[in-house]
């Protein structure tokens, strides 16, 4: 196998397009997932026994089955129950729901890690429950939640490659198609390795920076 | 026929479980070694460990498997499918487990380590008898999560010629052309396995919490 | 002590010469296969009726063909099952000696690989939902959504054909043909373009769900097995090729086609100029 960089240069526009699709779906997917996941975690904590049990089972099912199978059933099985989605919306919804389930568990652990005394103290000071969540629990949770949330985001970036089975033209699908059309396997493996690695490293750096700033904020005197 | 299909899926699930368990165990040993390298404070050990973690977390598992299976022969290492699958999964999970353990080791109270040193334990003894058990206890939930992740990711080993649960589902779907019920069944089997892992994890956590620090 | 060292050296020298000789005796792919008594064949098992899993057993025309070939050559056949994407890189990496597949014989493939004489026709046709009266002939797909396999020659043929229609088709590429069939059932596409033997098998397996639209629309093309182009594989490719022709002459190939396709194909002994 010989490495031929010309293949990469020739197909740069296609590659850029695939990269763009991957990044957009990933960012939108995790943004939606974080918001939805937080809502789920909050509802489970404060919504009573039934809400907790129902949401808890949904989360277990989503976390206990491969994303590939979920997305396959949503896209190819959906139309049989009246849910006909186009590839990109289907991929986005699938990614959001799956990541929401995973993020919600991180937030749940975060809620659990905020000392009960802090919450009680806020109550004594006359804060409402919403105020307590917003001003005490979220800031305190942020420090605990950030490292696993960044880790999960990295995993989701790589999971997004699964969307190729529902014909989403994301990076992995684009690269492997070029690889097999041009018999450029080595080049394909090389591009995939480098691009994902760079994206993951960048995400980690941003995560560490945020961690650093948050921890300063938390322990600052103001 | 339906019964036959379900039996075949269950048989394939056995490969999925076997490969995942072996990889998690090997990955755990490597992760401990990586942690030791990180904590050594010597750059000759910690720098390669950092690059290792960065590479195996950053590069998709699919690509790692292809590298091991189709590119290693170019340098004379023609590994069989099962070896490629287990090596790929083990190295990948080692990187993630090392990251989890990093947090756990950071949370081991300094006083305990000092106390161990004062009582005359060697650095190695301190590492294996004090730091590892405590870090492990602190990161057990993360380890259980990682086990579930690897179980689900193990579907990727079909790219090196291993037939596991997802691949079997795809194969069965492609001869019966009934993908929806087959994928539903496969999903159900994954769910049961993951739930069992989660239950064992919760049990272990409770046991460990009782013998707490 | 010295004696033992000498003995060791002598033994290893003898071993070295021995391996050199045996390497000489088995210095190409075919000779190595004969010496090992095993031929490794790579394939994808999601390509019925050539290679697929039926009731847990790997079966299909390829399995029958290579079993016959193994009998003739006196070796065991060992299958390596990979996703189609991974089959050619693995062939080049030396994971197996030959690729079953089969693949459509195209100009681009002949530049890179050696292909055997045809084992079946690969001409592309249309699969539709059973009872869909809006498609009765191939040109009825004009302006509609049609699926095919990503980066396949069947997809290339679909696009070529689409360009000749009054309104182009919306061509959708799927990672595997099986996903395309699933989407045909789901209703996002109205047809799947794939080679006749494959879709004929789909229609037979799922009577009442899918139907083949005749005639085939693509240019006449053929399926062949694939080997490496290097000198090391030359005699092996020649051997597999001669087996295809032998089985064609003695009627074994026709019997296999009848068994797996329900019909036989008239195939040439050699494809000199692929149609595309």
TrEMBL record, chain A:
Coiled coil: none
GO terms classed as biological process: amino acid transport
InterPro entries the record matches: AA_ABC_transptr_permease_3TM, ArtM/GltK/GlnP/TcyL/YhdX-like, MetI-like, MetI-like_sf
CDD domains named among the record's database cross-references: TM_PBP2
Membrane topology reported for the UniProt record: Multi-pass membrane protein
NCBIfam families (UniProt xref): HEQRo_perm_3TM
Protein name: Amino acid ABC transporter permease
UniProt organism field: Rhizobium deserti
Top-level taxonomy: Bacteria, Pseudomonadati, Pseudomonadota, Alphaproteobacteria, Hyphomicrobiales
From TrEMBL, chain B:
InterPro entries found in the cross-reference section: AA_ABC_transptr_permease_3TM, ArtM/GltK/GlnP/TcyL/YhdX-like, MetI-like, MetI-like_sf
Coarse class of the protein's main subcellular location: membrane
Listed GO CC annotations: ATP-binding cassette (ABC) transporter complex
TM segment ranges: 12-39, 134-157, 177-200
Domain ABC transmembrane type-1: 13-201
Domain of life assignment: Bacteria
Alphabetic keyword roster: Amino-acid transport, Cell membrane, Membrane, Transmembrane, Transmembrane helix, Transport
Localization: Cell inner membrane; Cell membrane
Membrane topology note: Multi-pass membrane protein
Family: Belongs to the binding-protein-dependent transport system permease family. HisMQ subfamily.
Protein name in the entry: Amino acid ABC transporter permease
Organism: Rhizobium deserti
UniProtKB/TrEMBL annotation, chain C:
Chief location: periplasm
Record GO cellular component, one term: periplasmic space
Coiled-coil regions listed: none
InterPro entries tied to this protein: Solute-binding_3/MltF_N (IPR001638)
Subcellular location: Periplasm
Top-level taxonomic group: Bacteria
Sequence ranges assigned to domain Solute-binding protein family 3/N-terminal in this UniProt record: 38-264
Keywords carried by this UniProt record: Signal
First and last residue of the signal peptide: 1-25
Name used for this protein in its record: Transporter substrate-binding domain-containing protein
Organism: Rhizobium deserti
């Amino acid at each position: 196998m010989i490495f031929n960089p010309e293949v990469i240069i020739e197909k740069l526009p296609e590659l850029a397009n695939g990269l763009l699709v991957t990044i957009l779906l990933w960012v939108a997917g995790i943004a939606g997932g974080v918001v939805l996941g937080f809502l789920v975690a909050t509802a489970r904590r404060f919504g009573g026994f039934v809400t907790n049990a129902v949401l808890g089972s949904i989360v277990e099912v989503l976390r206990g089955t491969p994303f590939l199978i979920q997305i396959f059933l949503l896209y190819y099985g959906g139309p049989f129950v009246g849910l006909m989605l186009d590839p990109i919306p289907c991929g986005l919804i699938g990614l959001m729901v799956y990541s929401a389930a995973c993020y919600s568990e991180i937030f749940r652990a975060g809620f659990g890690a905020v000392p009960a005394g802090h919450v009680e103290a806020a109550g004594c000071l006359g804060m409402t429950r919403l105020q307590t969540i917003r001003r005490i629990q979220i800031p305190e949770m942020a420090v605990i939640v950030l490292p696993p949330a960044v880790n999960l985001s990295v995993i989701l970036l790589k999971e997004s490659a699964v969307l190729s089975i529902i014909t989403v033209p994301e990076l992995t699908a684009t690269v492997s198609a070029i690889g097999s059309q041009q018999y450029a396997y080595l080049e394909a493996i090389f591009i995939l390795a480098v691009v994902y690695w760079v994206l993951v490293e960048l995400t980690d750096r941003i995560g560490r920076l945020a961690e650093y700033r948050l921890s300063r904020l938390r322990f600052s005197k103001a | 026929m339906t019964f036959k299909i379900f039996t075949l899926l269950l048989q394939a699930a056995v490969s999925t479980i076997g490969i995942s368990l072996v990889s998690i165990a090997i990955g755990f040993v490597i992760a401990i070694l990586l942690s030791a390298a990180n904590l050594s404070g010597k750059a000759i050990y910690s720098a390669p460990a950092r690059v290792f973690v960065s590479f195996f977390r950053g590069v998709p598992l699919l690509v790692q498997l292809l590298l091991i299976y189709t590119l290693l022969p170019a340098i004379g290492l023609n590994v069989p499918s099962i070896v490629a699958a287990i090596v790929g999964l083990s190295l990948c999970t080692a990187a993630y487990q090392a990251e989890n353990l990093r947090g756990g080791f950071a949370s081991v109270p300094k006083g305990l380590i000092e106390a161990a040193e004062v009582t005359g334990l060697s650095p190695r003894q301190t590492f294996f008898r004090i730091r590892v058990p405590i870090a492990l206890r602190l990161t057990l939930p993360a380890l259980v999560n990682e086990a579930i992740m690897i179980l689900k990711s193990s579907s990727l080993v079909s790219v090196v010629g291993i037939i596991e649960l997802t691949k079997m589902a795809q194969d069965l779907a492609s001869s019966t052309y009934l993908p929806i019920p087959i994928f539903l069944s496969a999903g159900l089997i994954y769910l049961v396995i993951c739930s069992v892992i989660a239950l064992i994890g919760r049990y272990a956590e409770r046991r460990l919490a009782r013998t707490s620090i | 002590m010295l004696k033992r060292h000498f003995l060791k050296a002598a033994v290893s020298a003898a071993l070295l010469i021995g391996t050199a000789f045996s390497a000489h005796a088995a210095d190409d792919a075919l000779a190595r296969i004969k010496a090992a008594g095993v031929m490794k064949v790579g394939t994808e098992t999601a390509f019925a009726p050539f290679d697929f899993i039926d009731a847990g057993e790997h079966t299909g025309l390829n399995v029958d063909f290579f079993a016959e070939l193994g009998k003739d050559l006196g070796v065991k056949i060992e299958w390596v099952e990979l996703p189609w994407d991974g089959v050619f890189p693995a062939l080049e990496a030396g994971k197996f000696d030959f690729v079953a597949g089969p693949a459509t014989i195209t100009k681009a493939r002949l530049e890179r690989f050696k292909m055997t004489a045809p084992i079946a026709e690969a001409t592309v046709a249309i699969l539709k939902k059973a009872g869909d009266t809006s498609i009765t002939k191939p040109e009825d797909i004009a302006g509609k959504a049609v699926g095919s396999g990503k980066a396949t020659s069947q997809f290339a043929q679909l696009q070529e054909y689409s360009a000749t229609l009054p309104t182009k088709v919306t061509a959708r590429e799927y990672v595997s043909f099986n996903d395309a069939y699933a989407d045909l059932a789901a209703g996002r596409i109205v047809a799947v373009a794939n080679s006749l033997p494959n879709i004929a098998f789909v229609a037979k397996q799922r009577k009442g769900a899918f139907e083949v639209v005749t005639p085939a629309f693509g240019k006449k093309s053929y399926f062949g097995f694939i080997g490496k182009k290097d000198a090391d594989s030359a005699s092996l490719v020649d051997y597999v090729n001669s087996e295809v022709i032998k089985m064609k002459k003695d009627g074994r190939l026709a019997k296999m086609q009848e068994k797996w396709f329900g019909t036989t194909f008239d195939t040439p002994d050699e494809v000199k100029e692929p149609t595309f």
